[in-house]
Amino acid sequence: MITSLQSPHVEAVKALLGSRGVKERRERGQYVIEGGTNLRAALDNANGAVTKIYYTSEGLTRFGQITSDVELIEVSPQVMKAMSDTVSSQGILALAQIPERSLVKFITEAKPTRIAYFWQIQDPGNAGTVIRAADAFGFDAVIFSDNSVDVYSPKVVRATAGSLWQIPVFEECAIAELAKLAGQFQGELLVTKADGEETLATAARRVAGKLSFWVFGNEARGIPAEVERELQPSSVRIPMSGRAESLNLATAAAVVMYASEADQ
Q: What is the DSSP letter of 224?
């Protein structure tokens, strides 16, 4: 059992969570998974990505049996508290490898029909929520642009509530690369706008069964005009009968994903 707060294990985990966490995660190709729900989803769906599990006796009892071939390391409650990024640790966390994925290979082999693309999304909670919504409504993948929040940051990982390991997620895809992919695979690009030319229901029916990229903008700026010019997408509006002027990013994405699922 690890009882020392100066253990190299503690420092290694804390480095992935601290202020330099993004750099550490990218250099080491690792990230931290906290909590039973997320860890169970990772073990069930991530094909051996989990490499180490740190646990307290109470945490492992609560989590249950682990049958995967993973290195198990018991730690004291004090050490677990020092490792954890949450106020109230569940007594179990893991290290996992960040997957290496090719968008071109994925589209070629998986033949997806609905992919969500998020341009420069910044809020970790929003990022986790849209991954979870995409998983819930049967999207084939989620793509984040360059200059977006780090998908493997602890807050995003927790916010996905297990969906991070149930749907392919791609990072660092620039607008130019997205436009190239759409042209290469005859995919349609669609963006939601208050004055969009098509209603959501009409657009969803039109692209049903075909490769479509549903594009969502930054929380504050939406999709800038220069980005839209580069993509030349179809514009789609979400009809709203109430008095609200607009929807926030996560809500708009969830509505679009739900509507497009209904027309598959």
A: -
